[in-house]
Amino acid sequence: MNSELFTAITEDGSLSLVSGLYMQLYHNRIGAYTEALLNYSNVAMAVLRAVHGVELPSTINILDCCFGLGYNSLVFAQELPPNIDLNVTAIELDPGVMQFVPQVLNQACFAPLRAAGLSRDDAAAIGAFARTEVHCPGKNGTYTFEMVASCLRDYWRQHGDRHQGSQHLILHDPFSPKKMPELWTIDLFERYKAALVDGGMVLTYSSAPAVRGAFLELGFRVYRTPFLGGKWGGTLAVLGDYMEEPVANGELAEHITPLGALEYERLVKSSRVPFRDPGLKSEREDILAARIAEQEVFFAEVRAQRLANGERVGPAGKRRKRKDAKLALGQNQILATDSGTN
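^ thats the sequence. predicted structure below, dont judge the formating
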């Protein structure tokens, strides 16, 4: 749990926080609201329309993993067309973050959501981890927020089965893979896959090869979300091939694009090796060590293949030592940020 929090105003004027523990801004510096709108809500709506057509499901189910200040779910609720019910299950560990939710909802950017029926008392209830059911007359829909105070891995170990095949959208928004690799493992994403409906999706801000490589290994179709604030763009992982034609035709280019050549190049290197945590309870250092070992196997297999193809290959030992030193340095930097685990 993060006890050191500092408020920050992002470039679009919306409120964010800075974690004193991880020294990381909670949102893209371009804007907390702008990021939620462009990288999450607009992309999710584009996928839902591509999968379901004009008639969207009468009820949409969302899992918001690491709810934080709530921008991703709240912006989605604000942008949701009328006559649709919304169920949000939100997992968040830190009550210190949640106490800012009423302040977030009181901003001008959420005036349409307040006008639709989400009151100040509703915002306070959400911020206090209370189950909150809101009938929004302005939307002719009922929005239910089930708030869960839990670390993400504990939640999925204990309650993951209840979501089997029911979720349209999973929002994955913890601190970065470099800070918290235990929340970016292929084993966690495998549980996400089991929770999704056919055509369901996972959205995250990360473009890390280990993250995209995990989704690809699990059989997701993987795309890039919009560039924002100098970042590469986030990741959209879709269950099924519903997006292949519209993305290839450029119909959704404003929101979703195929991975580029440089991104695919990174995905054939050892950097695509995912983090693994089969029981969702491994220590951070063990997860990192296991990935390093798997990358070494990857190096050896690539080297053997190149030798079999008659290519000239340098001495394996020196390259391994250089790579080991680099990986060990990265591991030590990660472990130095926090001695605890999720």
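The chain has a mean pLDDT of 89.
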